[in-house]
Amino acid sequence: MDYRVGQIGRIFTVRMDHGEDLLGSLKTLASKENIQAATFLLLGAVEAGNMVIGPKKNERPPDKMWMSFGDAHEIVGAGNLFREKGEPVVHLHAGLGRAEDGRIGCVRKENRIFMVIEAFVFELTGFEAERIWNEDEGYAPITFK
Q1: How far out from the chain centre does Cα 117 lie?
Q2: Which terminus of the chain has a smaller tally of CB atoms within 10 A, N or C?
Q3: Is 90 a member of any domain?
């Protein structure tokens, strides 16, 4: 385990509208506001999207199982944002549901918003960290400077 102590900086209340790309909108906010690190909560709905719902086997690096959908799903999620090679990277885990069908996973690629998503973004300050790709593990963990 490795950790740093920091503080909450600015807090952003964000409305993302119908048809916008969920992850792209969060990255745009980070770029526009020069957010280096943040955690966030969100709720609303997506009309089409993609998510990783687990590894095919318990092996590292993982061979991912993907789920794609093309109809509206409710969403509630929590995630973080850190930079990788200077660019904002969003890591979002969410529960999505439609009628009796529910899934939990890591939201990836494009996810179009249905109606609205409201997000509450808490900037993290007082430490420096970035994501650095680890080929052996198959992902870019948070690395403290």
Answers
A1: 13
A2: N
A3: yes
3-class secondary structure, 113: strand
Cα separation values, 126 from 6, 13, 52, 69, Å? 4, 21, 32, 39
Half-sphere exposure of 78 (CA within 13 A, CB side): 0
pLDDT digits (tens, 9 = 90+) for 42-54: 999 999 999 999 9
Flag whether the pTM goes above 0.90.
yes
Residue with tokens 């403290």: 144
- Three-state DSSP state, 128: coil
Peptide bond into 61 cis (omega under 30): yes
Report if residue 104 sits inside a domain.
yes
Q: Note the pLDDT tens digit of each residue in 69-110.
A: 999 999 999 999 999 999 999 999 999 999 998 999 999 999
CATH number of domain containing 64: 3.30.1330.80
